Amino acid sequence: MLRKFYSTVAFVVTFVTVINAATWTGSGTDTDAYQITSVAQLKELSDSVNSGITYAQKFFQLTVNIELTENWTAIGTQTNPFMGTFDGGGKTIAGLTINLPTQNNVGLFGYTLSATIKNLGIISGLITGNDNVGAVVGFADMSVITNCYNKATVVGCKDGTGGLVGAAFYPSIDTSYNQGAVSGVNQVGGILGKGVITLTDIDGNVYETKQIGNQVWMLSNLKTTKLNDGTAIANASTSANWSAVTGESVAYTIQSTRPGQIYYAFGAVATNKLCPKGWHVPTEAEWIVLKTHLEGVVGNANIAKSMASTTGWPASTTVDAVGNNQATNNSSGLNMSPEGYRKPAAGGFSTSGQYAAFWSSTPSSSTNARMAFLYYGYSVMTIQSNGKTSGYSVRCVKN
User: Fold this and answer.
1) How far apart are CA 175 and CA 342, in angstroms?
2) Is the dihedral of CA 250, 256, 257, 258 positive or negative?
3) Could you tell me if 222 and 396 are in contact, meaning their C-beta atoms sit under 8 angstroms apart?
4) What distance in Å separates the CA atoms of residue 374 and residue 355, rounded to the nearest whole number?
């Protein structure tokens, strides 16, 4: 009985001590955020979150540039995540040093859940951890990272190393960049090491995205019927309407045998407003960058297979072709399926399952533009010029 009473008292004393330790001013609301004005107060945030106070729906504002001179203890763990909003206010943190090569979830913030980190720069330091290592956040769980950057060195000893975020589950990362050196073993990226980032277009369609090399790509075909400024794209699905499409027509077409699939005329691409804001239709050069990166990862003979979906293609006996041993396709995650395309003028569809065809934004003449395609019998991605009045799928790449 005495032992039980003693444990209860010890818990209460510890809890009160943590709460009273915080010396921030402000009430923690969105209009009166807790003000962090020193290294000591930033450490108070780390101590209190790691002791179990998540600060869900609470707001913090950094008001000064911070110079750290000691090893940093990350804010938040998987057991005790940070769940509030941290606004860096355009300030910077220098000297962020963490040397924990066997610890997971390492960064300024170790683990965030439904949190927002914004307007913050990490300008120097060396961050070393095991799994999920990033300068701003080690693991971002359904969190928002916006207008942040990193110039510190990040080193991961296992899986998930990123300049800003080591690993993430359905985060939103935008208007952010990394200039720091990043090295790791598996799933290494300049902004994000591993995870799923979603993108929503103006119609409300949601797309998963992935960093591949130094690019971030949508992992499914664009489905919008509006430009990103809200302008409607003309539906030219009837044979008569498609036959009337010109090289300048801002138009799309659908086909009943491919529900949900949209094919765009080049005029829609040429508006530079087809993809969601902050994204664009890749140029020919950007398709080549993707191809070159994948060649370095899987070898020249497997580029197309690494991009293609694992089902839907006709069988091929050609070794390393997309249609050969399809279960080994899609190592890149791009999951490009054989949706075919719509032919110009006469308006017929090619939906035999042989092609996955995509526009680039690069015109090659007044009537033609460059496009990329996969073919079930080839082991390579092919880039060539075709008529602007053709209808092809679109993938978007991050600005």
Assistant:
1) 36
2) positive
3) yes
4) 6
Q: Is 50 helix (H, G, I), strand (E, B) or coil?
A: helix
- Which residue in this structure is represented by tokens 């602007």? 388
Give the closest residue to 122 by CA, choosing from 86, 81, 91.
91
- Domains of the chain, with CATH numbers? 22-197 (2.160.20.110), 217-398 (no CATH)
Q: Which residues contact 152 (CB under 8 A, 6 or more apart)?
A: 96, 122, 123, 124, 125, 126, 127, 135, 180
**Residue 179 near residue 150, CB atoms below 8 Å:** yes
Q: What is the pTM of this model?
A: 0.60
* Per-residue pLDDT reduced to its tens digit, 259-309: 889 999 999 999 999 999 989 999 999 999 999 999 988 888 899 999 999
Compute CA distances 247 → 223, 321, 342, 363, 369, whole Å: 20, 33, 14, 10, 10
DSSP 383: E
Strand, coil or helix: 57 = coil
Distance between CA atoms of 235 and 227, rounded to whole angstroms? 13
Each residue's pLDDT expressed in tens, for the chain with a length of 399 residues: 223 322 223 333 333 333 435 799 999 999 999 999 999 999 999 999 999 999 999 999 999 999 999 999 999 998 899 999 999 999 999 999 999 999 999 999 999 988 999 999 999 999 999 999 999 999 998 899 999 999 999 999 998 999 999 999 778 898 999 999 999 998 899 999 988 777 889 999 999 888 787 788 999 999 999 999 999 999 999 999 999 999 999 999 998 888 889 999 999 999 999 999 989 999 999 999 999 999 988 888 899 999 999 999 999 999 999 999 999 999 888 999 999 999 998 778 887 789 999 999 999 999 999 999 999 999 999 999 999 999 999 999 999
How far is residue 14's CA from residue 301's CA, in Å, rounded to a whole number? Answer: 62
Burial class (CB in 10 A: 0-12, 13-18, 19+), 147: middle
Contact 330, 306 (CB under 8 A): yes
